[in-house]
Amino acid sequence: MGLPTASNSQEATPIDDVAWYSENSGGKAHDVATKKPNKLGLYDMSGNSWEWVYDWLVGYTADDKVNPVQLTGSGNKTRRGGSYGEPAEFARVSRRAIRSRDGAADMGFRLGASTELPPGMISACEAANPSDAVCVGDKNRDCRLITAADEAWISDDYTVVIGEDGIAAVSGFPNVSGQWYTLNNRSFNVVTKTGTKTYAYYVFSQDELTMISDDGIPYRLYRRAASEAKNKVSLTTVSNPKTLEQLIAAVEPERLVTDEQLAHPDTSVRDPRIAAASGYTWFFDGRCCGGNHKYRFHLDKNGDAEFVVMDYDDTHHENILAKGRWFTVGNIGLHIVLNGKYFNYLYTAGERTMSYSEYMPAGPIFCHISFQSYERGDFRIFNKTLYDDKIKRPRGFNGENPVYEAGDYQWGS
Length: 413
Known about the structure:
The chain is mostly beta strands. The chain folds into three domains: 1-129, paralog of FGE (formylglycine-generating enzyme) (Alpha-Beta Complex), CATH 3.90.1580.10; 143-251, Lipocalin (Beta Barrel), CATH 2.40.128; 262-391, Lipocalin, CATH 2.40.128. It has helices at 15-18, 124-127, 244-249, 259-263; strands at 50-56, 77-80, 96-99, 107-108, 151-154, 159-162, 167-170, 176-183, 187-191, 196-205, 208-213, 218-225, 280-285, 294-299, 304-310, 318-329, 333-338, 341-352, 363-370, 379-386. The strands form three sheets. It has an eight-stranded antiparallel β-barrel with strand order 5-6-7-8-9-10-11-12. Strands 13-14-15-16-17-18-19-20 form an eight-stranded antiparallel barrel. It has a four-stranded mixed sheet with strand order 3-2-1-4, with no helix packed on it.
């Protein structure tokens, strides 16, 4: 028995006969089978509750596939079919969206039973039973990141090797190598011959890691045998290496945060690098990466913050994901306070030195990794953009309220 995959369903019309959605639900979920079934005799395949499915979310390809199974991907699961809180145009099984591996409100799941697992699937306990990353090491060298001699952190495009001896190497354009240290289990830093390269990072488990660099390169990494890496890197010898104490002594004061400061942050501190310049804001266009959502993250110099998702499934509206008063901790933690609760992110700020496409131009960038339950460990890369009518939309189904509630203050993974 297990969750259905993301592809095996069809639906019927008209929509009011088969689905509860925002205009007819009264803002709440309803009992199963209070609407008509679809053509396959299945109830609530459209609307009522999002269906959280077995597959990880990946982009579609041009190749035909029959009931594909996706065991790895973006780091988040797929949800299907819309819900009682979203508009009628979402109430269709072809409507899919990203959702945290941890689930979220307004979601359900559907159990399927068979005498044997369908081709490509593995048991639910094997598919989602990660081992916590737990170890004991130096405060400024997060031992959860260290790879054994025959291991590496690997993705389709990148390879990262982090040695116990304090040397690390990251593949890229160009490769990065040198001595490494971490700060507060939030930033991974490689000291090269020309300076320090900083990555915000989020540890999911002993075998999965997300990080993003200060020049906007995202990494979704899995601990694998080094022989599996497409892009090989190796640890180099550092001439005249410094002690860890010497490396930490050279860190900029604004990046050094004590445990007490982490637990009780100064909410008046705001990193000027990410405060919006007059007439500008931060903008991310998901069409760069196969999506259709767009995001605006506005961090006003006076302390007001608003993070919105736009063109949600081509609806030409915007819905608020976070709002409130913002502050930063150690030039790596971004927190937005609303009614005593928090929206939490890690971030980096830097410069994209060359243009990769119209959606990824050269210039200042701001990147974040989210702690929010609906997208834990997910990342975005924002460009400095004119704050004009081209990146504004009428408010969507949730009006002036955030779609998801704020939570507790959180600073590490």
